Amino acid sequence: MVLSSKASYVVSMLMVVFLAACVTPTENPAGYEKRGNSENIPPGLELSAEEKVTIRFAGIPNPPPPHEERIREDGNIHPPYLSEPVKALGLTPPQLQTKLYEAYVPRIFTTISITVLTEERLITVNGEVARSGRYPYVGETTAVEAISQAGGLTDFARKRKLTVIRGNGLKFTFDYEKARRESQFDPPIYPGDIIDVPKRLY
Length: 202
Prior knowledge:
Elements: H1 5-21, E1 33-34, E2 40-41, E3 52-58, E4 67-70, E5 76-77, E6 86-87, H2 93-104, E7 113-118, E8 122-127, E9 133-136, E10 141-142, H3 143-149, E11 162-165, E12 171-174, H4 176-181, E13 188-189, E14 194-197
Parallel strand pairs: 8-14
Antiparallel strand pairs: 1-2, 3-4, 3-7, 5-6, 8-9, 10-13, 11-12, 11-14
């Protein structure tokens, strides 16, 4: 049987609606955020306004002295020898390093090594741990590692439902015992994150 053009169009549209309905959005419990360049950047790693950055130069004879500056409200910094400001807001330190290298080489230097350092970044572990408080973020860290840094859980901790609060306000829970047994259930922790360990009710 040959369908008319109108009937074929109706059938095609019904198929499109059916396929669209079958698509299920994926959840994002780790709290990653999509950026314009489609790169997943964990929240809290981006540079923010008023954050102090230190730019260190090396790899050449007599490199410029280190440059310290707080990121301005417009998101820019003004590194030495550059006539135009550089947008730092929203970038990670490695991304800013790349951007600065491209601004200096080869326009000003034939080659140079650039390192961007930030002020101490902290994570917080609250509730039923041996030593609740703020701890320095020293690189790639998971929730279980952060809790170990805080002395581990107390005997009164509710292990099955700990809460992580991201720097951007996103909240999710995880099972501590499951995270200890299987690393894929141990969420990464980023600067500004808070881990809240509740108390058992019995």
